[in-house]
């Protein structure tokens, strides 16, 4: 009897545990609208960037502001406020450790006017480029919108919340807490300190959990009936001389007069000179196709003399009586992507990626959008001859995606899932939602050539198989025109997820985390690991991270860990492996970790952050940058016949008799 009771309890326990481990593939809500705010003859955009009032909540009382309704009045009536720039992370703006490391909620508010003319016959929208991690927004004391997920935009119609003749107030509560069901994951605990306890946020990912209003805040108007979504797909034919632009438009609202509800769109495409090269009138479903003769395809940097060619698509929405309702313009690059189990092709031509993992990170502003920094970064990418980067480890600003389109830099677009583990139902829902929001935001960018569904997920763990099958299938269902990858760090023999990818990317730190100092233990290991991945999955393979922390100005000969010489030697041993792998054809790219030094959480392995940058945090080259530049241009010349910049080589001596075979002539 006792035994059977015991087995019954055991049975129930096993059932309970296995139920907890079952993950179901549930639907997630989909985002709407969110076109990048642009002025037009029917729309007006206003920026709310600038100085806002700011106050952190007490860490031990993060919901006090909600309970006490701080949003009902000016923040300076409830607490003493300080000035805080928007956009910026708040962490490094003051001199206070308590704000740098603050865990939980902080509050922002500011006042603004909207012109009286906005009251008439139109709608007003409030849009945030990103707030990390969770945001609650009130306008004049009323809740306007809530959003969870850093690095992605959100918006709400606020027409009914605004005062058109007097001053308005906007209040934002931002929560940076990361737990096991947020993307990315983290843990919050209470740890004893000298005076009691502290709330401590921990996370395993290797970048500082900057928070705040990271990107621009816009108010913009649309007509009552307006273009809410645009989806573009492109194709090429006749040896890339004929281009096709397929468009689908969604409308929000209906025409004033029922009879006029059969809306249609007139769509025109302009080249860089502003000449119209194609036009079309949509069908009643508001979709259609434009055909472009003598098309200029979108090519990556150094793959063509005129990379990043963009057309402008002008969309006019009309009522059946021809009344013009709305106008929206966006840039379009015409290109094709295709892939096999050994290649990745753009416009039918195989691509070899030479790029970087990066971060949105800078002194003082943290992850805040900064056009000066963005421009400098793209100048450096061009200087060094890179043709790609991965948005490790979260979506980057929409403005940076526009830069990438224009400069012909290919983007592996990553969602914010880093070090994913302890797979659970709530996490899956948010992970899928992050991809849905990302794809919705970025699907029209020609620069986006691949989706990365995770960085270093713990894919050896139980449930990783089902979990990633769901995530990959979901991603593909949203966009089948781009391949899917993930940057994996578990050994190929233990991984359970790569089979669901189209392209396998792996991260490995030979002669750094494993066998530090052993430059003689790189080349073969890289070749062996890439080969093992290809053998296991029969897919193209990328090395998505390799590198060494390097303290600028530290020179040691013979090379020694942390010195500029060591980083240079370590890269060179990787280049040797990559060249051997390139001969195998299925090896399609090399990505350095990292573009620039960046801030991390405090730990004894980091000296003021991660120093694996090829550039310093101030965006100046370390010694290795010059080596990498020579390689990236050499690869560009070998594969795409690009020319060398005049200053690629410095004069050393007269070339030898054999002239062209001088060792510097790669
Ligand atoms: C990795 C991670 C990256 C880290 C890097 C490092 O594998 O993907 O986020 O910063 O290693 O330097 O440890």
UniProtKB/TrEMBL annotation:
So which domain of life are we looking at? Eukaryota
Glycosyl hydrolases family 2 sugar binding domain: residues covered? 45-223
Enumerate the subcellular locations listed in this protein's record, separating them with semicolons. Answer: Lysosome
Leader peptide range in chain numbering: 1-20
The segment(s) forming the Glycoside hydrolase family 2 catalytic domain are: 340-633
Q: Does the keyword Repressor apply?
A: no
Activity regulation info = Inhibited by L-aspartic acid.
Q: Give UniProt keywords alphabetically.
A: Glycoprotein, Glycosidase, Hydrolase, Lysosome, Signal
A Pfam family (short name) is Glyco_hydro_2_N
Q: What residues does the Glycoside hydrolase family 2 immunoglobulin-like beta-sandwich domain cover?
A: 225-335
**Main site of residence?**
other
Identify the EC number(s): 3.2.1.31
Name its GO BP terms in alphabetical order. Answer: carbohydrate metabolic process; glucuronoside catabolic process
One cellular component term from this protein's GO annotations in UniProt: extracellular space
Q: Do you know which Gene3D superfamilies this protein is assigned to? A: Galactose-binding domain-like, Glycosidases, Immunoglobulins
Q: Which reaction does it catalyse?
A: a beta-D-glucuronoside + H2O = D-glucuronate + an alcohol
- Its top-level enzyme class, in one word, is hydrolase
Citing just one GO molecular function, the answer is: beta-glucuronidase activity
Q: How does it assemble?
A: Homotetramer.
What protein name is recorded for this chain? Beta-glucuronidase
Species of origin: Drosophila lebanonensis (Fruit fly)
Q: What is the lineage of its organism?
A: Eukaryota, Metazoa, Ecdysozoa, Arthropoda, Hexapoda
């Amino acid at each position: 009897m006792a035994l059977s009771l015991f087995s019954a309890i055991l049975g129930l326990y096993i059932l309970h545990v296995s139920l907890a481990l079952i993950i179901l593939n549930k639907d997630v809500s989909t985002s709407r609208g969110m076109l990048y705010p642009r002025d037009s003859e029917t729309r007006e955009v206003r920026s709310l960037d600038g100085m806002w009032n700011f106050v952190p909540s007490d860490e031990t009382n993060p919901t006090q502001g909600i309970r006490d309704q701080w949003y009902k009045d000016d923040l300076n009536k409830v607490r003493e406020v300080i000035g805080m720039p928007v956009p910026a992370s708040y962490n490094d703006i003051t001199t206070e450790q308590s704000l740098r490391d603050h865990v939980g909620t902080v509050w922002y508010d500011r006042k603004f006017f909207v012109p009286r003319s906005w009251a008439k016959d139109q709608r007003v929208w409030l849009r945030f480029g990103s707030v990390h991690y969770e945001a609650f927004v009130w306008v004049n004391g009323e809740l306007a919108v809530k959003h969870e997920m850093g690095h992605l935009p959100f918006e709400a119609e606020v027409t009914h919340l605004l005062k058109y003749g007097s001053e308005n107030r906007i209040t934002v509560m931002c929560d940076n807490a990361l737990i096991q069901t947020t993307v990315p994951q983290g843990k919050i605990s209470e740890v004893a300190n000298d005076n009691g306890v502290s709330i401590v946020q921990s996370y395993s990912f290797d970048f500082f959990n900057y928070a705040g209003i990271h990107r621009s805040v816009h108010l913009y108007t649309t007509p009552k009936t307006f273009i809410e979504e645009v989806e573009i797909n492109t194709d090429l034919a006749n040896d890339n001389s004929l281009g096709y632009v397929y468009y689908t438009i969604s409308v929000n609202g209906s025409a004033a007069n029922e009879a006029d509800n059969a809306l249609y769109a007139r769509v025109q495409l302009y080249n860089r000179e502003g000449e119209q090269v194609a036009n079309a009138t949509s069908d009643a479903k508001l979709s259609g196709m434009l055909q472009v003769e003598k098309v200029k395809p979108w090519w990556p940097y150094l793959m063509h003399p005129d990379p990043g060619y963009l057309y402008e698509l002008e969309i006019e929405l009309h009522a059946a009586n021809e009344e013009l309702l709305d106008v929206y313009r966006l840039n379009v690059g015409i290109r094709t992507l295709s892939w096999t189990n050994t290649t990745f092709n753009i416009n039918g031509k195989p691509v070899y990626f030479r790029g970087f993992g990066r971060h949105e990170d800078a002194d003082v502003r943290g992850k805040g959008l900064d056009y000066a920094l963005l421009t400098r970064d793209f100048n450096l990418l061009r200087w060094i001859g890179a043709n790609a980067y991965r948005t490790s480890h979260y979506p980057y600003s929409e403005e940076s995606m526009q830069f990438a389109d224009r400069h012909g830099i290919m983007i592996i677009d990553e969602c914010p899932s880093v070090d994913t583990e302890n797979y659970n139902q709530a996490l899956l829902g948010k992970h899928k939602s992050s991809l849905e929001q990302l794809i919705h935001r970025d699907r029209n960018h020609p620069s986006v050539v691949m989706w990365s569904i995770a960085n270093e997920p713990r894919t050896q763990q139980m449930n990783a198989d089902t979990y990633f099958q769901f995530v990959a299938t979901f991603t593909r269902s949203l966009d089948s025109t781009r391949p899917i990858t993930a940057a994996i760090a578990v050994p190929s023999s233990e991984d359970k997820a790569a089979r669901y990818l189209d392209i396998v990317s792996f991260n490995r730190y030979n002669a750094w985390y494993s066998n530090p100092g052993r430059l003689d233990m790189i080349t073969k290991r890289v070749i062996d690991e890439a080969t093992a991945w290809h053998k296991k999955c029969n897919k193209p393979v990328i090395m998505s991270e390799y590198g060494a922390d390097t303290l600028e100005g530290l020179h040691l000969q013979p090379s020694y860990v942390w010195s500029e010489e060591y980083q240079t030697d370590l890269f060179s041993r990787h280049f040797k492996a990559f060249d051997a792998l390139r001969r195998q054809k299925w090896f399609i790219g090399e990505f350095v970790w990292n573009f620039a030094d960046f801030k991390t959480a405090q730990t004894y392995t980091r000296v003021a952050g991660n120093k694996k940058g090829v550039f310093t945090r101030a965006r100046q080259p370390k010694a290795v940058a010059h080596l990498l530049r020579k390689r990236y241009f050499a690869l560009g010349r070998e594969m795409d016949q690009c020319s060398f910049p005049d200053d690629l080589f410095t004069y050393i001596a007269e070339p030898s008799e054999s002239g062209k075979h001088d060792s510097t002539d790669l």
